[in-house]
Design goal:
The protein is of the alpha/beta class. It contains seven helices and 30 strands. A hairpin with a 5-residue loop joins strand 26 and strand 27. The radius of gyration is 31 Å and the shape is elongated. Bound molecules: adenosine monophosphate and magnesium ion (MG).
């Protein structure tokens, strides 16, 4: 791949393409189904057995012969009781019924269920046996759940490429797939850099700041972001602004991670060593794949992307993507969201690299000046009364204003130019929940 002049602004789409080019899904592993939530299934799972495995009742009531109820109300003799989990031992003969609980197998002879709410208990008849009055006609098949009516044996239960939801986990358990082949959650390392940074103590206490020092927020925000997105977050700690510290940190990262994010040290400062070290490690690895970029976005212009050989045991010739993200707290999150996340999703086996963007109506206008960059504006997206999304700037848009980022649930993609006028549509990358739809009509009747 050709290198890029660090001073040339590279359009976001090209950076995304460049970052994604070498990305391949991690080799599948076998995981217990209870550990596979959010993972991407690597091979189809076919139902080995019918679900449900036998015909059973969907309701509590009485298993009857539908023909007996043609002249309902009709009185029937109770010849048994069947709970869920019991196999029938007697059949339902003419004029007879078997009391049955939800999930119990349909006894032979019965072809419908009279629900308990439409039954009158009559007590013992002259022969001493219990009798019930069925109030309504029961049609054949009433409240039956046929064998295989959820999933038939041999049918596709969950397709390869599916991102496993809680319901998928349940489906897999229902067909007896206790261990599944999935792409593993990428182990993503986070290494922060900066001599000005002060860490929280292990007990959560905050040491006093000396002049020139600030508290680290990137480590915590990046690790939390990775966990939110379903990756395994690996804390690689803080590297001092020296070539030796950054090199040692990255070498450790290549030993233990499937992908690495660093923050800081990729601008033009005297002590920005991440850029320098990645350049050297890239050259050692054969070079050519280290991209020092000025991305045509605001915030988050500086970025280094490279793919370095894994040194993990069994890593083979696998390459590990390393993203040298900018240090400013908002920039590192925006850079992650727009450039690193699609790559991590490919490693995790997601069929679509980029999370989808959605159109929203610009509220208040998203003004800007022409500067050759796409602006990624922190917005809060809410449902409007008409069911459309409304995007409003959260204010504070500078790259150190993490408080503004915390108010945002998305980034509006505002192309170079004068901005998006109030009421026009703008594409939005969503990364947080949307406040519920606020309707002027009365609530729904569904429970
Ligand atoms: P750098 O990219 O290293 O020049 O950092 C850019 C800005 O981000 C500087 O103002 C840094 O102090 C700040 N910064 C870098 N890393 C962190 C961090 N981990 N937490 C908070 N701010 C940071
Ligand atoms: Mg720095």
């Amino acid at each position: 791949m050709p290198g890029h002049d660090y001073e040339t602004l590279v359009p976001l789409a090209e950076v995304q393409r460049l970052a994604l080019e070498p990305a391949r899904p991690l080799a599948p592993v076998h995981l217990p189904v209870d550990e596979a939530l959010g993972c991407v299934l690597a091979s189809d799972v076919v139902a080995a057995e019918d679900v449900p495995p036998f015909a059973n009742t969907a309701m509590d009531g009485y298993a009857v012969r539908s023909g007996d109820t043609a002249g309902a109300p009709v009185d029937l003799t109770v010849v048994g009781v069947l709970g869920a989990g019991t196999a029938p031992t007697v059949a339902v003969g003419p004029g007879e019924a078997i009391q049955i609980m939800t999930g119990a197998p349909i006894p032979p002879g019965a072809d419908g269920i009279a629900i308990v709410e439409r039954i009158e208990a009559l007590g013992a008849g002259p022969d001493g046996r219990l009798r019930v009055r069925v109030l309504d006609v029961v049609e054949p098949g009433y409240h039956f759940r046929a064998a295989g009516s959820d999933l038939a044996a041999g049918s596709l239960a969950v397709a390869a490429g599916t991102v496993l939801s809680p319901a998928h986990i349940g489906v897999l358990a229902s067909v007896g797939a206790g261990v599944v082949s999935v792409h593993p959650r990428p182990r993503v390392g986070v290494m922060i850099t900066g001599d000005e940074l002060v860490e929280l103590a292990a007990d959560g206490s905050a040491p006093p700041l000396s002049p020139g020092q600030i508290r680290d927020s990137n480590r915590h925000a990046m690790l939390a972001t990775l966990r939110r997105d379903g990756f395994e977050a690996v804390d690689l700690g803080l590297a001092a602004d020296t070539e030796a510290a950054v090199t040692a940190g990255l070498e450790r990262a290549l030993h233990s991670c499937d992908a690495v994010l660093t923050t800081g040290g990729v601008s033009k400062g005297e002590f920005d060593y991440v850029k320098v070290v990645l350049g050297k490690l890239g050259a050692l690895a054969g070079g050519g794949d280290v991209h020092e970029l000025s991305v045509a976005i605001r915030p988050a212009k500086p970025l280094v992307i490279c793919w370095l050989p894994s040194t993990a045991a069994g890593g083979g010739s696998r390459l590990v993507p390393v993203f040298g993200l900018p240090g400013n707290p908002v920039s590192s999150l925006v850079s992650y969201q727009s450039i690193a996340l699609p790559v991590l999703r490919v490693l995790a086996g997601h069929p679509a690299a980029a999370p989808p963007t959605v159109p929203a109506v610009a509220a208040g206008g998203l003004q800007r000046h022409r500067d050759g960059k796409t602006h990624l504006v922190r917005i809060e997206a809410r449902w409007g009364d008409d069911g459309r999304l409304i995007a409003r700037s959260v204010g504070g848009q500078m790259s150190h204003q993490l408080g503004g980022m915390a108010l945002a649930n998305g980034l509006a993609i505002v192309p170079d130019g004068e901005g998006v006028p109030e009421g026009d549509l703008v594409q939005v990358i969503l990364f947080g929940p949307i406040e519920p739809y606020v309707s002027s009509s009365a609530g729904s009747t569904e429970t």
